[in-house]
Amino acid sequence: MAKNKDARPPTFAVSVVGLSGTEKDKGNCGVGKSCLCNRYVRSDADSYYPEHTSVLSTIDFGGRVVNNDHFLYWGEVVHHGDDGQDCKIQLIEQTEFIDDQTFLPHRSTNLQPYSKRAASAKLQSAEKLMYICTDQLGLEQDFDQRQMPDGKLAVDGFMLCVDVSKGCNRKFDDQMKFVGSLYAQIGKTKKPIVLAATKCDECVEQHLRDLQSFAAGKKNLVVVETSARTSTNVDLCFHALVQQMDKTRGKPKTVSYLDAYKVQRQHVAVATDRFEKVVLQTVRDYHITWKQVMNQLKGQPDYEDYIVMEGTRKARNTFARHSAQLKQEHIRRRREEYLTALPKTLNNLLNNLEEVEHLTWSEAQSLIRSRPDFQCWFVVLERPPWDESDHIDNSDRRVPFDLLKTQDGERIYQNHVQHLFSEKRRVEMKDRFKKTLERVHFIGAGQPWEEVMCFVMEDEAYKYITESDRRDVYSRHQLEIVERAKEDFQEMLFEHAELFYDLDLNATPSCDKMSEIHCVLNEEPRYRALQKLVPDRESLLLKHIGFVYHPTKQTCLSGQSCVDLKVEQVLANRLVQLDHGRSNHYYSTPNLDKINLCLLGKEGLAQELANEIRAQSTDREYALDGQIYELELLPVDVNSTLLFSHNWVATFKPHGCFCVFSSIESLNGVGDCIGRIRAEISQSRRERFAQPLPFILVLANQRDAVCKNTPILRHQGQQLANKLQCTFVDIPSGAFPRKFNEQQVKQALRAVLEGLKHNSDALSPLPSIKDMSEADLRIVMCAMCWDPFSVDLILSPFLDSQCCSAGQPGQGNTLVLDKIIGDTRRRIQVTVLSYHSSIGVRKDELVHGYILVYSAKRKASMATLRAFLAEVQDVIPVQMVAITDSQADFFENDAIKELMTEGEHIATEIAAKFTALYSLSQYHRQTEVFTPFFNHVLERKPGIENAFMQDSSSRDCSTTTAAGEDVFPSSPHSHSPVYNPYYDSEEDTEAPPPYSPIGDDVQLLPTPSDRARYRIDLEGNEYPVHSTPNNDHDRNHKVPPPVLPKPVLPKPAVRKLDPNLVRTIEAGMRSTRRSPRGTLARGDDGGGGDGSENYADPADTLLRARGYGHDDIYAVPEDAHGLMVRARGSLGGGLHGGEQENGLDRRSGARRPSKYKHRSKILFSKTKAYQRRFHSDSDGEESGRATQKKKKGRAHRGSEEDPLLSPTDGWKGGIDNPAVTSDPEQDDKKVKKKKKAPKEPKKSKSSKPVKPLYPPTRRTWDSNYFGVPLNTLVTPERPIPLFIEKCVDYIERIGLTTEGLYRVSGNKTDQDNIQKQFDQDTGLDLVLMDVAVNAVAGALKAFFADLPDPLIPYTLHPELVEAAKILDYMERLQVLREIVNKFPPVNYLVFKYIIAHLNRVSQQSKTTLMTAENLSICFWPTLMRPDFENPETLSTTKLSQAVVEDFIRQSLYFFYGGEVADSSSSEGTPPPHHCHNMVEVLLPLQLPPPLQPQQIQHSLPQDPLLL
Questions:
Q1: Contacts of 1491 (CB under 8 A, 6+ apart)
Q2: Phi, psi torsion values for 531, nearest 5 degrees
């Protein structure tokens, strides 16, 4: 050892020796000297080379690494001791290199044998390089070059290596001899020696023992078991040698190889786990490379430790395995995705069970490939299988088609077919269950499922589907019921329009008014239908009242179906604004020689029509009516994506569109496409005056279909054409083989040309007669929202006219007609509004006439018309229009006949015109329908305007109207402000006035007792004190008296036909309506005068009216006998108050204007009917009945209070359109109806026999045991039927712990099998059958259900119900015990037996969850078998259930003389509340925003509501 004087660590030179030489001497492999040196000097796995050779070429032997020496310099390494003392080790390996040519040792400077040369204590070699590996030889410049220290290197110790493995063609004894000789030579140097047993990982135990025996014979010779391959005890052997070289160091503990190897493996395992975790956290994508991973992991301790211990190669292998696992996981996930998506894919491609149920899997695959949308769901790979191709990395989520060839694919297909079977069955059962619910008529809106469940538990569909499906079906059924009930309730509110017409202006209904509303509506079944949804009902009522207060299109209850919105849309699409400077049109029709046609159809119909047109053309030229047109055809399927493009119209520029259909489905598809095309053209239209696109509906001939479908298609096509306002081309008469005929094509082309010409005329400038603001007539057409007809129908008489154009800008609901009336061209402004928007127009605007439209199919439409018309001034002409489908509806539908009759009679009473429009008729779509009405309005125009001016002059000059959009421009004849029916402007600060102004509810002729509450104005008019307005709001209604029409000459009688039918045809087909006849009754002295004397002159009335400072409306236009008084005639009798007599103004001599409700018995009676009904109901039940009888008696004598009311409603007998005046046959029928048989005294409910109910048997086989009377199944020895005993015994032995016993339905097949086998063998053992408890329970219930008579006799049902109403519990039980003793003996014993059994079941309710109440719900319909079609039964269901519950709960008391069982109901349990009329207090009503009315201060009276 070199003596170092400084503090640097000492340096030791160690020589590693061992058996060396030729293959003959050492065998095929060495003893492991080089591997031991390599592992010690460079311990990391990447620097360890397991192969080192001693056979070298002469060049390599002479290189600087070997340097012609038989030893290798391994370099210098720092050795770390256990005691913390470090030292440096210079390692020398003594070996013997063999020439690769001669296989003899190379000649070197030292020619001594190996044993002597290896024992040399000093070594020297000039410029000798450090050895690293065999690959270094000859390539020294590529490796680290470190030189051996110059001078002689003194060896401080020897490491003698002995191979203890089996060896390669070498005997261990020979090796030991060489070791002994070498040890003797080394011993002479007196240097420390350590024996290193190498290759212990392949150790031979005998060799190791021999080596240890050898060492034991030597003094201080240590044997260390090592393995360079596993890096075990390598440092230990050098540590032992260092201790011998430096005695100051502690002696290390020698550890056997096995123990050291276990510790080494533990370290390796820990490092491996940590490295794998790092890889797992770092590598998430199998596409990442090892180089990228190394760069990411570089510097991490876990990675570095593993690289040192196991090497980069193993780390890379670990990474490769992890990447492969990630790839397999990715493939597995993709496979799961494909397999998960495959059922959905199959459901889209093979969703028809009939198509696939008999196909094999290979046939199904062929069918899948033949589908048109196959490419959307599957992908066919060029190089299958998919999991070995690049498809795994593709973002394409389509299923690889080769996946279907796997077993998983076939399995999923089979499951899909089974799913189709089960889904079909499930859907069928859900539909059946839905129909079952529809047959249960007592299900009301808001009724919970639990109340209905017990009535349908025996239904087969109920048992098949799951509970979630049951609730889902019931929820949908309940939703339909609720929506229908709400719609009916809303319709009922509209039908009671007069009830809401007299609400005050303060936007808060009074307590009395709300009581009146509830009192009247409570009589309606539609009101009571929402009894379980009282909050929803009150919300609907409040919403309706809010709409009454604020009637605008924004608050309209119909939403987007509001007439105002629909009219604006139609007029915006079909009309253009007047522009006299416009000259350019979209098309130039007169010079049109090329026609672009779009052919729209479904399933190839469009292409077939295109082929037919091309076949009829010559080089795309078509001859029509002497002209040649070039046709450009574009066939489009209704499902094509072209229709969704916004620029196809601008690109193709079609002149028309042929829409072909051959079935209901294709007709519906074509109709939807037309609406969508129109909407898209309207939205994307850039040129403002572009003309609309003509659509032609063409019916294709059904060559392969049954001929009976043609009339249906023709009717449906005609209806759709009427709705869409387009032309319908029918199949021509006669048979032809093709789908389309030349006549059809020509008719359709003519329709396109006519449409283009019509649109061109409409877009042409109209002759300018006068300024738009100077309209000659202002007409308001009113329609009801939600009426079952399209607004196109009522607008068609105007829009189909060539003289129709749009109104001024900002008036979206106005159109202008330029018509010749009389001898002069007139401009008529028609404003089409809803009734709720027309209220403001009626009050504040100059209107020359009203066209009131109503649907003859809807009572609410007629009620709204009546309510609106009642407040219209009687000087304004009215045209009433009834809408229905055809004239046949009058004869086939009584409801339509009644509404048309009522409308006709109202028109007759007020001298208005009446007509009908038929949606299936084209005649009434012409403007001439209203020409007679326009003539009549023009005749009365001066009187109307004078009356309006007179009313305007009495207004306060400071009164102004909120700014906004004008419905009418300022009148050229007056300066009154205009009225805005829409409140869209931000400047609007007030809500519009309600239906009726203050004071409209004044009695026509008050009784003397009421006169004290009225005052007399300067003209003798009576008005109520509390209703006097501060602003002359009511004065808008005062107009001069109407101009009386000239008397109508009687029409000659029509013979040989039924008068009713003749007048019906006459009223529907003639172009003009006849003048109203008999509208005004004259006095006896007015019949002989000149006709001109019957017409009032409003001039002097207008002059005299301005002399009064206060004016009011006269309420009595007629005398007490209902006769009109002539305007200019002698006045007889005394004057009342010196100012007025019989409604005549003493100064002017003219009758004051009134409202139409005072001229019509129908309108007046409808208004007063609600008041009489409310007052009669509010006086108490007894007094109310007496009052009603009294009023009814007075009605036959004529009403003294209401002089306009006649004893009977004569209008209900017939109508004048058809003009039914008298019909002897009908009169005879009426007389017969009035004669009634004498009434029989009523019987009490308890004595009324109960109708027995015999439900259809559920059995499908004949049985001698089931379904027979109970007394035939029992004997004195066996009072209980054997089947009941067996079922009860089985249930109590096995099923008393079954959850949901008697509630959960058992399998119906098992139930039937139980009864069938019992039919064959009464000794049946249910235990041996091994059936479910629920199936036995179901069979037991089925036994009772099949009995001809229920177990509880029908005769005792009323007594049981009455007993259930007893409030005292003990008294109720005593009465029930008396009733049950009335049972027939057989029924009593069986009832006792089954009730006792149910009591025992209820005692296990903690496990079965079947309490006495639950059991009674399940069993009472079976034991009592009620008739659910009887309304009385429905009202007592809860009572019947409560009775059975008492029997089960108190079975010991009823049948065994026991005490009353403890029960929460024993303390005076009242009967179920559902069975009594309860009183519900109505909360104060508050209206929703935006009005925010004040809350009612007084509580409302209680309103009886039926639960």
A1: 507, 546, 549, 550, 991
A2: -65, -35
Nearest to 1338 by CA among 1302, 1373, 1372, 1368: 1302
Question: Would residue 95 be called left, alpha or beta, if left means φ above 0 and alpha means ψ between -120 and 50 degrees?
Answer: beta
Look up residue 1020 and give its two tokens: 């003798």
Alpha helices in 1198-1332, H assignment, sequence order: 1224-1234, 1282-1294, 1308-1320, 1326-1329
Amino acid making up residue 543: K
Q: Would you place residue 726 in the very low, low, confident or very high pLDDT band (cuts 50, 70, 90)?
A: confident
Query: Are β-strands 153-154 and 157-163 bridged in parallel, bridged antiparallel, or unpaired?
Result: unpaired
User: What tokens appear for 250 in the block?
Assistant: 């502690």
DSSP per position, 271-333: HHHHHHHHHHHH---TT--HHHHHHHHTT-HHHHHHHHHH-HHHHHHHHHHHHHHHHHHHHHH
Which pair of structure tokens corresponds to residue 189?
Answer: 């140097």
Task: Convert the pLDDT of each residue in 1000-1055 to its tens digit.
Answer: 333 333 333 343 343 333 333 333 333 333 333 333 333 334 444 444 444 443 33
Which residues, 6+ apart, have CB-to-CB distance to 788 below 8 Å? 855, 857, 858
Preceding omega of 1490 cis (within 30 degrees of 0):
yes
Task: Please name the residue ranges forming H helices in 381-459.
Answer: 407-439, 449-453
Query: What are 216-237's pLDDT values in tens digits?
Result: 888 889 999 999 999 999 989 9
Kindly give, in sequence order, each residue whose CB lies less than 8 Å from that of residue 422, ignoring residues fewer than 6 positions away.
none
- Output the average pLDDT for the chain: 75
SS3 state of residue 780: strand
At residue 1160, what are phi and psi to the nearest 5 degrees? -125, 125
pLDDT band at 1320 (very low <50, low <70, confident <90, very high): confident
- Residue 1227 backbone phi and psi in degrees, to 5: -65, -40
Residue 1478 φ/ψ, nearest 5 degrees: -95, 160
User: Both tokens of residue 922?
Assistant: 């084209």
Q: What is the DSSP string of 1400-1425?
A: HHHTTHHHH---HHHHHHHHHHHHH-
> Can you tell me the distance from the alpha carbon of 1257 to that of 302, in angstroms, rounded to the nearest whole number?
81
Q: How far is CA 707 from the centre of its chain?
A: 39
- Cα–Cα distance for residue pair 1291/1297, rounded to 1 Å: 9
Q: Which helix (H) or strand (E) holds 537?
A: helix 534-549
Q: How many CB atoms lie within 10 A of CB 371?
A: 14
> What does the pLDDT look like over 1176-1198, one tens digit per residue?
544 444 443 433 333 333 333 33
Distance of CA 990 to the CA centre of its chain: 39
Residues paired with residue 633 on neighbouring β-strands, in sequence order: 597
Through-space distance between the first and last CA atoms of the chain, rounded to whole angstroms:
115
Q: CA 1441, CA 1475: separation in Å to the nearest integer?
A: 12
Helices (H), 635-776: 648-652, 664-684, 709-724, 742-763
Distance CA 899, CA 876 (A): 23
Confidence of residue 1460 (pLDDT cuts 50, 70, 90): confident
Instruction: Determine the Cα–Cα distance for residues 54 and 144; give it in Å rounded to an integer.
Output: 21
Which tokens sit at 398?
A: 């389509």
Distance CA 437, CA 431 (A): 10
As a whole number of angstroms, the distance between CA 1443 and CA 1420 comes to 9
CA atoms within 13 A of residue 726's CA, in its CB half-sphere:
25
Neighbours of 1187 (CB within 10 A): 16
Tokens of 929: 């329908």
Cβ within 8 Å of residue 622, ≥6 positions away: 613, 616, 628, 629, 630, 631, 749
Which of 136, 137, 110, 111 minimizes the C-alpha distance to 123?
110
DSSP state of 147: B
Q: How far apart are CA 601 and CA 597, in angstroms?
A: 13
Q: Report which secondary-structure segment, H or E, holds 464.
A: helix 460-464
The C-alpha atoms of residue 174 and residue 181 are separated, in whole angstroms, by: 11
Q: Does the pLDDT of residue 145 top 60, yes or no?
A: yes
Structure tokens at 1420: 């009472």
